[in-house]
Design brief:
The protein is mainly α and 130 residues long. The protein has helices spanning 33-41, 66-69, 73-88, 113-129; strands at 5-8, 99-102. A two-stranded antiparallel sheet has the order 1-2.
Length: 130
C-alpha cells in the first residue's frame, strides 16, 4: 500500500494487522516481523480478529491483550503499544465496511488535484535528488 493510502477502520475485516496504515495513526501500527509471524500462526490476520468477545464488559480495552495472546517480553511491549495507539487514536470497530482512503490530504481523506500534485511533486523530487 502506498504511503498516501490509509484505512478508515470500520469492521476491521480488510485491515491487515501490522502492515496496513490506519487513518490517524503512525508507525505504532507497523509490527516487527516476529510479532506478525506470531499473530499469523495463531490466526490473527486482520483487525477484526483481535476484538475481545466480551469487550462490552471492559471499559479499558475492546482488543485482546498481550496476556490474552500469551505474548511476553519485547513482543508483549510492542503489542501493548499497538493497543494503546488504537485507543488513543479513537479507533473502534463498527459495522461499517473499512474504506481505503487517500491520506495525503489529512483534513478529509478525499483525493483532489492539489493533494495529488503535491504527492507527485514530493515523490518526483525524491527521485531527482537521488
Amino acid at each position: 500500500m502506498g504511503s498516501w493510502l490509509s484505512w478508515k477502520v470500520g469492521n476491521g475485516k480488510q485491515v491487515i494487522l501490522g502492515t496496513d496504515s490506519i487513518l490517524g495513526s503512525d508507525e505504532i501500527f507497523i509490527f516487527s516481523s516476529a510479532l506478525i509471524s506470531i499473530l499469523s500462526e495463531n490466526g490473527f490476520k486482520t483487525l477484526e480478529h483481535i476484538e475481545r468477545p466480551d469487550w462490552m464488559n471492559r471499559a479499558h480495552s475492546y482488543c485482546l491483550t498481550a496476556e490474552d495472546l500469551g505474548l511476553k517480553g519485547s513482543i508483549a511491549d510492542e503489542w501493548k503499544a499497538h493497543i494503546d495507539g488504537l485507543r488513543i487514536a479513537g479507533i473502534r470497530l463498527t459495522e461499517d465496511e473499512d474504506k481505503l482512503i487517500w491520506s495525503w490530504n489529512k483534513s478529509n481523506g478525499q483525493l483532489n488535484a492539489k493533494s495529488a500534485y503535491d504527492a507527485i511533486s514530493i515523490i518526483s523530487s525524491d527521485y531527482v535528488g537521488n
